[in-house]
Write a structure and sequence with these properties.
mainly beta; Methylamine Dehydrogenase, Chain H; five-stranded mixed β-sheet; four-stranded antiparallel β-sheet; 4% helix; 44% strand
């Protein structure tokens, strides 16, 4: 039986499972919107939008979701009008990314990559041998990266052929311990390479002795201090490691991939934030934290990058930002305990998040302002914020939810077919 990590199951079941209606179950809605390709009597459309992106050449938002749902959305003054693409594959789409002004790539829940060419959706490649979901796609005009469950990573430099990227080794940079008292000090990574592992510490001014002053547990990723060590200088550690849980190298759900100035940033399970500056040949772990207990790492689910500013959001309201292209990170206040499924920066730099149970909010200073879910009648998750040319944001999610964020104001618009 093929093992699928608990967190990958949680992520895909939370998102895919929330949509309990048929992809296009409809009910009557007020009149007032009409467009070419839209039925003459508009109706509210219960589409679970898993991902979306703006196609500048079509002046529409391309959306994708369950049961082969792919469509183009036009935002008018009083509604978001959806025109479905015909004859699409009957699969659950989990990710989408525009690669030109009229084209986009779509990933499925079974690891199949598709292309939308402005009119039709066609298969490109089966990327996952075990039918793991494709969870994020990114491009920078020079390359395309596709990531997903159970260590799925592929890249393309010709926009046609996809090469698997296998991360066998990551550098854990030299890191100082924040304390010296007897405890199990976890490094936040497992599967350490003992040949590269370097641990330097002292007791009473003399080098610490392994098995007497400390014990290494490389597979589990912790160092047990048997006695109090010196803090001047503090103990330090560096090593190579294989990402994944103990004894399961590479088994990581990669939920986020971002590209900027030749740097690739990956994020996902186990609080992993990895970066490569050479196209994936070598990797370094960022945001290392050493703690004297079993770690509770972030589970990253969404990311956004504009220049050197990066935002990551995840389960239980955790979110972080980096202002130096991912080299250092700082925690942001939590808006609550709900998972944050989407994040974007508005044109003025204001972070906007969306997530579980109708979560939508903005951050000003150190305080999140959350929209009134009762007033907006939010009954489902919201996942995908889309930037529009006029500076507005359309945030899409389950059960046909569409939220317009315009200069600080938040309002709901009907998604009409």
């Amino acid at each position: 039986m093929i093992f699928k990590s608990k967190f990958t199951q949680i992520f895909t079941s939370v998102i895919l499972g929330f949509g309990t209606t048929n992809a296009l179950a409809q009910e009557s809605a007020p009149d007032g919107a009409g467009a070419t390709g839209v039925v003459s009597t508009p109706s509210t459309t219960y589409v679970d939008v898993m991902d979306a992106d703006y196609l500048e050449g079509m002046e529409r938002i391309l959306v994708a979701g369950q049961h082969g749902t792919v469509g183009l959305v036009e935002l008018t003054d009083n509604a978001a009008l959806l025109t479905l693409v015909k004859d699409t594959p009957n699969v659950d789409f989990t990710s989408l990314h525009a690669i030109s002004s009229r084209e986009a790539l779509l990933g499925s829940s079974t690891g199949m990559l598709y292309k939308f060419d402005g009119e039709n959706v066609s298969e490109i490649a089966q990327l996952s041998e075990y039918e793991e979901p494709i969870l994020d796609i990114e491009s920078d005009g020079k390359s395309i990266w596709v990531v997903g469950g159970r260590g799925l990573i592929y890249r393309s430099t010709d926009m046609t052929n996809y090469e698997e990227v296998i991360i066998d080794e990551v550098t854990l940079p030299l890191t100082e311990f924040p304390g010296n008292f007897p405890a199990d000090w976890y490094l936040g990574v497992s599967n350490l390479d003992t040949e590269t592992l370097m641990f330097t510490a002292s007791v009473g001014g003399k080098p610490a002795v392994e098995e007497e002053d400390y014990i290494l547990y490389p597979d589990e990723g912790f160092i047990q201090f048997q006695k109090e060590l010196d803090m001047d200088p503090a103990p330090v550690v560096a090593s190579k490691f294989a990402p994944g849980p103990p004894f399961r190298k590479g088994d990581v759900s990669w939920n986020v991939v971002m590209l900027n100035e030749g740097r690739v940033t990956l994020a996902g399970e186990f609080g992993m934030i990895l970066q490569s500056d050479d196209g994936g040949e070598t990797w370094i772990r960022r945001d290392t934290e050493i703690v004297p207990r079993e770690p509770e790492p972030a589970y990253w689910m969404a990311g956004y990058q504009r220049g050197n500013e990066i935002w990551l959001t995840g389960a239980a309201g955790v979110n972080q930002k980096s202002l130096d292209n991912g080299e250092t990170w700082e925690d942001n206040p939590k808006p609550g305990r709900e998972g944050i499924f989407g994040v974007v920066l508005s044109q003025d730099g204001t972070p906007v998040i969306s997530g579980a149970v109708g979560l939508i909010g903005t951050l000003k200073g150190d305080e999140w302002t959350l929209a009134d879910r009762t007033e907006l009648k939010l009954l489902s998750w919201i996942k995908t914020p889309v930037e529009l040319p006029n500076g507005k944001l359309l945030v899409l999610g389950g059960r046909g939810t569409a939220i317009l964020v315009d200069n600080g104001s938040v309002s709901r618009v009907p998604l009409l077919r």
